[in-house]
Design goal:
Strand order of the largest sheet: 13-12-11-7-10-9-8-14
Structural class: alpha/beta
Strand content: 15-25%
Number of helices: 10
Number of strands: 14
Order of helices and strands: EHEHEHEHEHEHEHEEEEEEHHHE
Shape: globular
C-alpha cells in the first residue's frame, strides 16, 4: 500500500516508525507547510517526496493518508483525502466539533473509503489484555470505570505558549482527556450524560485549565475520569469495577492486577488477597522489565498496534477497527466538558 503523511510534527515519528514495520507498505510523501521539518522527517525515514500542499501528494495516488495536523484542520484535510480516493487515519481528537466529525463520516460513506480515528490507547497492550479478559466473561459485568491521568508537562518538549492545543476550548487538558474518554466509551458504550468540574491555578504556563474531573453515564455503566497537569508522579491508572472482580490497569507500570474474592473465610481472604495481588504485580513487573530489556516495548502508547490493526482490516476488506462514530462520541463528550466546564470549579451538566 502507498501511504501519504500530512503533518510532520512530533506525533509523525510514531506513525512513520509504525509504517516502516508494516509489510508491503510504501510511504510516498510527507506534506507540511513547514517544508524544512517535512524534509527532516523524510530524510530520517527514507521518504522520497515532501510537499507544501496536498495536490502533488494526491497525484501519487496514495491508498492511505494519515492526517496528523492540529484538530481544527482535520475536517477539510480528511474530506479532501477521502474524495481523492484514499482511506484515512486521522489523529485524535477527531475534530473540534461534532458537525465536523459528522461531515467526515458522511464523506467516507460517499467515497466508500474507511476512516479510522487514532484512539490508540485501546491498543496499549495492558489495556487490550484487560479488554480481552472482560470479553471472555471471566470478570463479569462492568459496573463502573475510574480512570486518572497525571501528566508531567515537562515530558512534552513542544508545549509552550502558541502550542496548537491552545486553540482547543479545553487546551492541552482536552487533548489528553480524549484518551481516557475513548477508553471509557469502549468499556461503557455510548455516553448518555456528563458532569464535570475543572480548575485553573495559573501555575502551568500556556494552559487554560490545570485539573479536571468528570462523571460519565454510559449505556453499560458509570465512568469517572480525572486529568491533571500538576499531579505527580506521572501516572495513568484505570480501575474497572466488575461484578466478579476489580481490574486495576497501571498503564505507566504496564501491569494488570485482578482483585478477586478467594475461596477462603473472609478474614483470611483479606490477607491472602494482598499476597495474590502482590504476586500478580511481581509477575507483571518482571514480564514488563523483560520486554523492555528485549526492546519489545515500542513506547508509542498504542499507536503502532492501532495503525497495524487498521491496515490489517484494509488488507482483509474489513471495516475500520475504530468506528469513526467513536470519535464523534468522544468529541461530543469533550464539547460537554468544554465550554460548559471552562470556568474554574464550575459544575457542568447535560442530559
Amino acid at each position: 500500500m502507498k501511504v501519504g503523511i500530512v503533518g510532520s510534527g512530533l506525533i509523525s515519528g510514531h506513525h512513520l516508525r509504525a509504517l516502516s514495520h508494516y509489510a508491503n507498505c510504501e510511504i510516498v510523501g510527507i506534506v507540511d507547510r513547514d517544508l524544512a521539518r517535512a524534509r527532516e522527517q523524510a530524510e530520517r525515514f527514507n521518504v522520497p517526496h515532501t510537499f507544501e500542499s496536498l495536490a502533488p501528494l494526491f497525484a501519487l495516488k496514495p491508498d492511505v493518508v494519515h492526517v496528523l495536523t492540529p484538530p481544527d484542520s482535520h475536517g477539510s484535510l480528511v474530506i479532501e483525502a477521502l474524495e481523492a480516493g484514499a482511506h484515512v487515519y486521522v489523529e485524535k481528537p477527531m475534530a473540534p466539533t461534532a458537525a465536523d466529525c459528522e461531515a467526515m463520516i458522511k464523506a467516507a460513506k460517499r467515497a466508500n473509503r474507511q476512516l479510522c480515528v487514532g484512539h490508540c490507547w485501546n491498543y496499549i497492550p495492558v489495556i487490550a489484555r484487560a479488554q480481552r479478559l472482560i470479553d471472555s466473561g471471566a470478570a463479569g459485568d462492568i459496573l463502573q470505570v475510574a480512570a486518572s491521568f497525571n501528566y508531567d508537562i515537562t515530558r512534552n518538549p513542544t508545549f509552550r505558549a502558541g502550542h496548537w492545543s491552545g486553540n482547543l476550548p479545553g487546551g492541552l487538558l482536552e487533548d489528553l482527556s480524549v484518551h481516557l474518554i475513548s477508553v471509557l466509551i469502549r468499556l461503557l458504550g455510548t455516553p448518555r450524560r456528563t458532569s464535570a468540574f475543572s480548575r485553573s491555578s495559573g501555575q502551568v504556563a500556556g494552559a487554560q485549565v490545570d485539573d479536571m474531573c468528570a462523571i460519565i453515564e454510559g449505556e453499560r455503566g458509570l465512568g469517572s475520569l480525572s486529568v491533571s497537569l500538576r499531579g505527580r508522579p506521572d501516572m495513568i491508572l484505570i480501575d474497572v469495577h466488575c461484578s466478579r472482580m476489580l481490574l486495576r490497569i497501571n498503564v505507566s507500570g504496564m501491569t494488570l492486577a485482578a482483585y478477586r474474592p478467594l475461596p477462603v473465610p473472609q478474614k483470611i481472604g483479606r490477607g491472602l488477597g494482598n499476597l495474590d495481588v502482590a504476586a500478580q504485580l511481581v509477575g507483571g513487573t518482571l514480564s514488563a522489565t523483560w520486554q523492555l530489556l528485549r526492546k519489545k516495548v515500542d513506547g508509542s502508547y498504542g499507536i503502532t498496534p492501532c495503525i497495524h490493526a487498521f491496515y490489517d482490516a484494509l488488507v482483509a476488506g474489513q471495516p475500520s477497527p475504530i468506528d469513526p462514530r467513536e470519535g464523534l462520541r468522544a468529541v461530543e463528550v469533550l464539547r460537554t466538558l468544554w465550554p460548559l466546564a471552562e470556568s474554574p470549579a464550575r459544575l457542568a451538566s447535560s442530559g
